[in-house]
Amino acid sequence: MTPKLVIFDCDGVVVDSEILTNSFLRDEMAAHGLDLPLEQIMGLFVGGTISGVAVQARDMGATLPADWVETFYPRICEVLARGTPMIAGIVGVLERLEQAGIPYSIGSNGRHMKMRTTLGQHPELASRFTTNVFAATDVARPKPAPDLFLHAAQAMGHAPAHCVVIEDSPTGARAAQAAGMRCFGYAPEGDGAKLVAEGAHVFRSMDDLPALLAL
Fold first, then answer.
1. How many whole angstroms separate alpha carbon 212 and alpha carbon 44?
2. 3-class secondary-structure state, position 134
3. Which of 15, 30, 70, 176 is the most buried (most CB within 10 A)?
4. Domains delineated in the chain
């Protein structure tokens, strides 16, 4: 069934920022006493909020300063501003949605500051994602709660049952399921088992997404 609204996660779905962000996180954690490999950092933190990262890291022994969350964002934005690629094929997906007359938006656990930094590097994205970008700070509870996706659907004028979510994290897939929305899980590497466990239909390439959306 063709959706009436498609809600994309941002990091790892629209922009290829996960390795950059989590490499920075790895160095931050190591500097504060929690030295973990990148793969483990990504397994722990991809899809979460930075506030949630701070809580979990402190529970694991990291000695993060009290203002770490607020100082993190300007510093990670500086890193991302040096160059954050688009996900291969994402512009083609957006063009197909436009041709079909289907609106789209972003629903991300990241903050608006970070999305302005990454999306703003690419005119093809910056011109398409303006007032249709929603962040965890816009709602009471971030993913995996359904609040963000429900807020995006309401703001865009569509019922949850008519929306589809595109995610790359189990946290986001769980939020989509809680919101009553179908979810396609983008897993270009690995088996995507954690996404499947949260009810997502896994796909490997953005080139495959238009057919899955029945465009």
1. 29
2. strand
3. 176
4. 5-16+85-212 (3.40.50.1000), 18-80 (1.10.150)
28 is written with which tokens?
């931050």
- Region 181-201: mean pLDDT is 96
Half-sphere exposure of 111 (CA within 13 A, CB side): 11
CA dihedral 148, 208, 21, 179 (to 10 degrees): 20
What phi, psi does 102 have (nearest 5°)? Answer: -105, 120
The CA distance from 161 to 178, in Å, is 11
Sign, CA dihedral 7-187-195-48, equals: negative
- Cβ neighbours, 10 Å, residue 44: 17
Task: Give alpha helix (H) positions in 157-201.
Answer: 170-178, 193-197
Give the span between the Cα atoms of 102 and 114, in whole angstroms: 26
Please write the tens of the pLDDT for every residue from 25-79: 999 999 999 999 998 998 888 878 888 889 999 999 999 999 999 999 899 999 9
> pTM of the prediction?
0.92
d(CA 124, CA 122): 5
Give, in degrees to the nearest 5, the angle at Cα 196 between 194 and 199. 120
- For residue 151, the cross-strand partners are none
Q: What angle do CA 148, 154, 160 make, to 5 degrees?
A: 80
* Contact (Cβ atoms closer than 8 angstroms) between residue 182 and residue 166: no
